[in-house]
Amino acid sequence: MTFPVATVATLAWRNLWRNHRRTLIMLAAITLGVWAMIFMTAMMRGMTDQVVTNGLNVLPGEVQIHHPDYRRDPSVVNRMEPPTAELKAALDLPPVKAWSARVKVPAVVSSERDSRGVVLLGIDPVAEKLLGSLPDEIVEGRFLESADDRGVVIGASLARRLETRLGKRVVLMSQDPDNNVADRGVRVVGIYRARLRASEDIYVYGGLRPVQSMLGIGEDISEIAATADDYRSVNQWYPRIAAAAGEQLEVLSWPELDAYLGTSLKVQDGFSLIFIVVVFLVLSFGLVNTLVMAVFERVREIGLMQALGMRPGLILAQILLESIYLLVLGLLAGNLSAWLTIKPLESGIDVSSMGDGLEMAGMSATLYPALEIQDMIMATVVVLGLGLLASILPAWRAANLDPITALART
Amino acid sequence: MNITLRLAWRNLWRHKRRTWLTVGAMIFCNVLMVFLISLQLGSYTMMIENTLNASTGHIQVQHQGYLDDQKMRQTVPGVSQLANSLRGRYGLQAVAARASAFALASSEERSFGIQVSGVQPEFETQVSTFPGLVKSGRYLQGSEASEVVIGAVLAENLKVKLGDEITLLGSGLDGSFAAAVATVVGIVETGIDPVDRSVAQVPLAWFQEVFAMGDHGHAVVIQVADLDLVPAALQQVQAHIESEANLVALDWDTLLPGLQQAIASDMTSAWFMYGVLILLVAFSVLNTQLMSVLERTREFGVMLALGMAPGKLARLVGIETLLMAILGLTVGVLLGAMVAWYFNVFGFYYPGMDEMAARFNLPGRMYPEISFLSLFWGPGTVFLGVLFAAIYPAMRLYQLQPVDAMRAV
Amino acid sequence: MNAIRCQALCKTFRQGEEIITGLNNVSLEVEEGEFLCLSGPSGSGKTTLLNAWGGLATPDSGEITVGDHRIDQLGKGALADLRLHNIGFVFQAYNLIPVLSARENVEFVMQVQGVPTADRHQRAEAILEEVGLTGMSDRLPAELSGGQQQRVAVARAIVSKPELVLADEPTANLDSKSAAELMALFVALNNERGITFVIATHDTRVMAYARRLIKMVDGVVVSDERQEPQDMAV
After folding, report:
1. Does residue C118 sit at the A interface (CB-CB below 8 Å)?
2. Is there a smaller number of Cβ atoms within 10 Å at the N or the C end of chain A?
3. Which residues of A touch C109 (CB under 8 A)?
4. Helix, coil or strand: residue C53
5. Which residue, A196, A188, A195, is CA-closest to A140?
């Protein structure tokens, strides 16, 4: 038997608009639901992206290489030699966009007035710039110019706490590999501001080589960080780096480096799906109701069609198609409105009134919703798939009406 | 039973399936909201309590500006005396004095810059959960002994064990060089990494001597019995220190502005979701009631022709909606309370939650709070939304013309 | 050949507590080209018999053959196909699908059968003209009178050239003029195309057109007479 697509399509379409008020209300509900699914997911993804990028900026780099004991005991003792030729070759291959070797040790910085415990970073500014790990904004002075730069750049908050300022000298103090105090007076050449205030208090940037010589560690470094600018793809390239680094070194990707970030991402993905399904479930009550009513009103007609020789399968298809029309229209409108509302917001939503609270969660005071095609697809697939599933029961009942009883209904 | 009420009730069950589907949406939404809101409120309370009890306390008396700058010279003079004078008054539960200074802590193998706190051991135990978390050794005892209690991660970083000595180097209040040696008598493990990595406590009197503080300190930490009592206590403490121009009393919200905001931002995003769910339920009710009005056009026409005022018909529709809303509320709250109660007893766990929770000083398992607010906040809003949704269908009745209506199929 | 043959048909229904006999051991043969009326009071079983012949209801026992198909044991789908290709139906009022225009209602059956579009339009227009509905093909059922609606139903019943048309109280909601016109149309189609007509009715005006009149009471055939049709053309 042929499947009369056109007949079923026409019938379903016209039936959909017989009760245009009901259809419009249902459409509005589906549109709202889909919009909310995508909007909320985009906000959550934006937040997670931010948590992860901020986290990675602090780390930074999606893959890091250390001495195996360094993470437990981030002391100068647990340092490593500069990368071998083999490791360098691996790090220079795409998709790795940038990598940098640095010294990162705990230190004390003292002004005439006060002292603070900090993390001293000895860096090569050129490589770090490519890595994207430099502070967001230099508010005074300049950033380091080369790996030989003898100045230091400190955070605005730390400067205030130390009561020091641009051009002043501060004393850096740490320990050398033999546990002797290694110290050096340096000039503050720049003051930076970071998205997270906590970073401003902790990180002090100095040139790689002056820091190495202060600590007396020659060419040695604390860590190598590498990035491919897409934190989600890290598993594709990090095994290669691990192989090149050899057994002696510990190579970790960011989900292992920061469990909070790794879980954030997993929790967010799970949460988006839960949210989408929950919204759908609330929506489904209305959807099923609409279809049940539509079938109920049309019992006689359905009986007639059966009497005229329309197979039950076609009746089922007709009701399902009506549901699909409804879902597809709602999905189109929902996706479109989500796109239209999120796009203008992607430049950032100012939520500084909750800034400190968000900082606790690793976010900054501006939210950047992230609209991802895959989220739109996920919402669409869930709504269409579960929507059809929910429609099967009313459609099945319609298809299995007894034509005689149905026809007898007035 | 009132005849309108009886009529409304019977009308509802003319379409059993439709009514149940509509009420079902309400129930589903209500159960979900009761559960989530209880969970949220439960975790907020726990988050505030855990964070405040860790060390912040409910109120602190500090030197003006110390909160932002944390400079050593921003002191509270006569800190122990001030604490003594506050202790036992104004219904304050516990009062303890503290001082704090930066120092380079060195063991034989390692050196770290840390923030050292001077505490009154006998009172510190009342304002902080910290002393109770000593995993090995003991907490501080006398107020003058050269002892130190440090976090587990710090101990590991410094490579020290119980009984080892730590050298503290820093500068005194007067700018003099401060140096002392203290014995590690206890190691504390809170499970919260940043705390375990940074904390070092010594007895206050010894601290004052080492850092040349005299009788000065940096804070008086106050605990009250309940969060609700904070505003009143704050006022009284403020009055108490009025004579000291440079001192301020700060409540926990000022001390930790992130906490309230973290809660507010979480509540906001949660209510965005609830708002959407409630709107969807309202749509569902709007649809149902509109259908039920439209299919009864002929019947309503007859009633109008018999002389019933449109207002009465609108009221009938209103009562029908009200009945559905009450049904949804009752069943929803009951089921929701059961779900919340279950998790209140057994705890709620979501994979990966513990790592997120640790960030906010929360345990890995959550216990929903069961209160009037947690049970009725969500369903109450649904209830209102549902009633609101009946306005349009009811309004349509005013446009009905009896003759046309009776002719309608 | 027989258009319909049935042997010892029995059918009972349950209505609440009671068991109602719809058909009690009915055996009949209808020849091709007959114009037959089933009459009797309501509850006599005439509609049940019609539905059984049309494959809408399955008998509890007995055999039914329509054309050369044994239909009493066919499944739902096969019965639907049989109705689609071999039998035309005309029911009481509200016989049309409300969202489809007159022409689309007629085309509906052909569409389900899979007749190509161009062919379908042409045949629908032609048949509507034949039943006297020229120029009304784009109207929706709600825009047609009761008589016109029934003509559309007839057009739909015969458009796929069935050998058999079953009509259940086709004149029930019609005034006498429209009823007479409808019956005249039936007679004409019976004469010109040789389509077998079986009409269940309790309308005496309709019975007058029949060449064979079967009376039923309580599920039993009480009389089966051939008669000279009266000419009641208006």
Report:
1. no
2. C
3. 308-309
4. helix
5. A188
Q: Which residues of chain A have pLDDT under 70?
A: 1-3, 54-59, 259-260, 264, 350-366, 409-410
Phi, psi of B361 (to 5 degrees): 55, 40
Cβ neighbors of C31 (< 8 A, separation 6 or more) are C2, C3, C196
Q: Does A307 touch chain C (CB under 8 A)?
A: yes
The residue-averaged pLDDT of C144-155 equals 88
Name the phi and psi angles at A105, rounded to 5: -135, 155
Q: What are phi and psi of B339, to 5 degrees?
A: -60, -45
The Cα–Cα gap between A64 and B75 comes to 43
DSSP B2-52: -HHHHHHHHHHGGGHHHHHHHHHHHHHHHHHHHHHHHHHHHHHHHHHHHHI
Model confidence band, residue B373 (pLDDT cutoffs 50, 70, 90)? confident
* CA nearest neighbour of B71 among A211, A162, A400: A162
pLDDT exceeds 80 at position B349: no
> Chain A window 318-347: which residues touch B at a Cβ cutoff of 8 Å?
none
- CA dist A333 and A177 (Å) reads 65
Please tell me the predicted confidence (pLDDT) of residue B409: 54
Q: Say if residues A4 and C111 touch (Cβ distance below 8 Å).
A: yes
| Spatial distance between the Cα atoms of A253 and A228, rounded to a whole number of angstroms | 12
> What tokens appear for B44 in the block?
């907020």
pTM beyond 0.90, yes or no: no
ipTM of the complex: 0.76
Average pLDDT over residues C41-67: 87
CA distances from B382 to B28, B32, B270, C219 (A): 11, 12, 15, 57
Q: Look at residue B326 in the predicted model and tell me its pLDDT.
A: 94
User: Among residues A335, A302, A299, A318, which one has the least CA distance to residue A410?
Assistant: A299
Which of A369, A318, A320, A378 shows the shortest CA–CA distance to A348?
A: A369
Alpha helices in A246-298 (DSSP H): 254-257, 259-297
Q: Are B189 and B133 in contact (CB under 8 A)?
A: yes
Which pLDDT score, from 0 to 100, does residue B359 have?
A: 59
In this prediction, residue C197 carries a pLDDT of 92
Given a contact cutoff of 8 angstroms between Cβ atoms, the answer to whether B75 and B63 are in contact is: yes
- Phi, psi (5° rounding) for residue C216? -125, 145
Q: Give 3-state DSSP helix, strand, coil % of chain C, rounded to 5.
A: 35, 30, 35
Who's near B149: CB < 8 A, 6+ residues apart? B131, B134, B137, B139, B140, B184, B185, B186, B187, B188, B199, B200, B201, B202
Residue A95: how many other CB atoms lie within 10 Å: 12
Inter-chain residue contact A360 with B360, CB threshold 8 Å:
yes
d(CA B154, CA C190): 105
Residue A165: both structure tokens together: 């300022």
Start-to-end C-alpha separation, chain A: 32
Answer whether residue B119 shows pLDDT above 80.
yes
Beta bridge partners of A121: A104, A205
Collapsing DSSP to helix, strand or coil, A342 comes out as helix
Q: What is the rounded CA–CA span in Å between residue A388 and residue A370?
A: 29
Residue the block writes with tokens 């149905």: A406
Predicted confidence band of residue B358 (pLDDT cuts 50, 70, 90): low
The Cα of B237 is separated from the nearest Cα of chain A by a number of Å equal to 26
Structure tokens belonging to residue C204: 């005496």
For residue B125, give the nearest of B114, B136, B145, B141 by alpha carbon: B141
Q: How far apart are CA A39 and CA A55, in angstroms?
A: 24
Q: Which of A285, A295, A391 best tests the B interface by mutation, with the highest count of B CBs <10 A?
A: A285
